[in-house]
Design goal:
The complex is a heterodimer of chains A (about 400) and B (about 140). With about 400 residues, chain A is α/β, with parallel strands linked by helices. Chain A has 14 helices and 17 strands. Classes of the chains: A alpha/beta (about 400), B alpha+beta (about 140).
Chain lengths: ~400, ~140
Amino acid sequence: MLKTEAIDVESIRKDFPILRRKIHGKRLVYLDNAATTQKPQSVIDALVRFYSDYNSNVHRSVHTLGEEATVAYEGAREKVARFVGGTAKGLVFVRGTTEATNLVRFAWGDKNVKRGDVIVSTLMEHHSNIVPWQLLARSKGATLKFVGLQADGTLDMGSFEDLLKASPRLVAVTHCSNVLGTINDVATICLKARKAGAVTLVDGAQSVPHLPVDLREVGADFYAFSGHKMLGPTGIGALLAKKSMLEEMEPFQGGGEMIREVFPDHATWNDVPYKFEAGTVSIADAIGLGAAVDYLSSIGMDKVRKHEILLLQYALDALSKVKGFHPYGPEDLRERGGVISFNLADVHPHDLATILDEEGVAIRSGHHCAQLLMRWLDVAATSRASFQVYNSFDDVDALKAGLEKAGRIFKL
Amino acid sequence: MSSSADIYREIILDYYRNPRNFGRLEKFDIHSRDTNPLCGDEIEMQVKVGEGQKIEEIKFTGKGCAISQASASMLTELAKGKELKWVKELSKEDVFKMLGNPDLGPSRVKCALLGMKVLKTGVYGYLGTQYEDSDGNNENI
């Protein structure tokens, strides 16, 4: 069954050349989308067109190619910003979410976090939203504290409110968990954090590719996401912040492009967002991300979300019939992104991934860069299947058949 | 092409679910631990060295996939009673043979060899030398 009520998967699949590949002679069933997504032909074409038709550096080259590259690069900035309800002046192109959090650590954190300050994160964060704050806390003599979780895998808002009493400088939280799929009420979190005097950073790496996101509703000071998880190229992502916030911050890296004037003993900075884009940026990849945004917009994020809920529903029903299947994460699908982390009896996720690979089914196994969460779940690792627009009920059926095979091999 | 039926033979599953020499020694001369950062596999070994530089007792603990745990357990059985010299001469081909020569992909080879790495690191350290892992697990540039 290649159609959900929401979108026409069969026609979408034709846009992704990699889906024609056979793995061990089987159809590729790609369910590792929370790690990275596949790319539609339009994104691949955008990269090829840049390098074959108008490759040039941006902003400083006055020749025709330079003008064309600049227009395309800045056009991509406009598009990506508009996609999440932000402004182009407030969008810094970065390598990905990890570079965005590290940028905030240095450019904002160095100036604003002091000895004795409290930084708040949560137990469900990806390491990219924990380790930069650990490093910042260590260098400043600040303390990093974590919001706990409830049994159903949602944030314990009581523990969050308790932590706010310590007047934290920064609250760093994910919009959607890459393991549990939990969609956090980031609008409420940001509002409460702001009332307590905290600056807020939201990790949108797993939300922007899957849900309609409007930054005007979220109300975060910083919002970050990665291009490669939303059908775009690797090496490109975005950090969005209010223009005034960016203007008050120190530069991140020093070099070309980010300066206005350079003297022997000091330099002055370019306007935002260029102040944070030192060196030659990933021009082609930014343009490719613009093409990915066009692709997702042409489907419509409301439909993408609806499609994933239908897949989740179908998958949780089907897989729960497999002996030994144990899923993690919220049961209320309105609070859950298109991610299913699970274990299959005592089969280690790496053994399971090997068996599934033989069937052409690609899932992720391991700690998913979320070791605090693994410890909270009291498991060493989980298996994870995650969806995108090109996944169908057939893919879920292939996953189910693979799990049943693993069950037979391990004699469950 | 690897076949999971070939990798996960009965004997591997048996050692995974009922690991031999699993546990800790009260008295030991060698203690070594390592993890595979890719998978999070974890192996810890303890060895009591007896007369003639022989492995008198050996135990391991660990967490991880069937291949890493079964391989470590089978290796402790093989190593018991052998001279430390035997550990130095042990090759990865020996470990693959011990496992029945399964066709493992590059990422799973490290699971199979973690036990050997831990044992060798411990024994080399005891003998006052350093084990250089040839599989790129060390920080060689």
